[in-house]
Amino acid sequence: MKKKLLSITVFLFCCLSMLANNTLSNEKTPQPQINLIKSVNPPTTSLANITLCEGEELKLTAEDAGTGATYKWTKGASTKSSVKDLIINNVALGDAGIYTLTVTKNGCTNAVDIEVKINKNPDTPTLGNIVASCSNPSSTKISNYDANVTYIFTPTGPSVNATTHLVEGMTIGTSYTVKAKKGTCESGDSTSFKNDAMLPTPKAIIKLK
């Protein structure tokens, strides 16, 4: 599974009270900012969020608060990191949730939340094969067909019939793999498969002795 590195930089200012709408009550200090970097849309609500697919890498980075600052990333009651960076490789559905970054310096503390959403990858396509006969070449069918995904073949060319779920457009004797894609999330590749040519019909000849 191809990993997509997503990074979030959180700017925090010490000893300021954060209101429910993520604005600050101190007029002399700039408002905290959450910069979402690389393919992450700016939040439209007061709670920043990021969306990943299973198997991708999550990287959250706190802005350096200076000498003497400490950092803690938590999810619920669980501490996930005690340094500026929180990195989770190969995220799973269970990694979804609200993460809190708490920064402490000179006895002052500030915190900010971000919601991490994890989308399930589509199922890897499973294949059924109808063997070649004397009247037809072999054919391949996607047994776990899902109308909500897009099927991507390697090499390109084939497609899936939405009614019969048969793979069409294959070149006889060429090996293919297929994967399913939904949004930005992809399954793993299927096993390799190919269609065989129709079996030759034997000649029926009577020879006189």
From TrEMBL:
Q: Which residues form the signal peptide?
A: 1-20
Q: Which domain of life does the UniProt lineage start with?
A: Bacteria
**PROSITE patterns reported in the protein's UniProt record:** IG_LIKE (PS50835)
Identify the residues that the record assigns to the Ig-like domain, covering every copy: 32-119
Q: Which UniProt keywords apply?
A: Signal
Report what the protein is called.
Answer: Ig-like domain-containing protein
Provenance organism:
Tenacibaculum finnmarkense genomovar finnmarkense
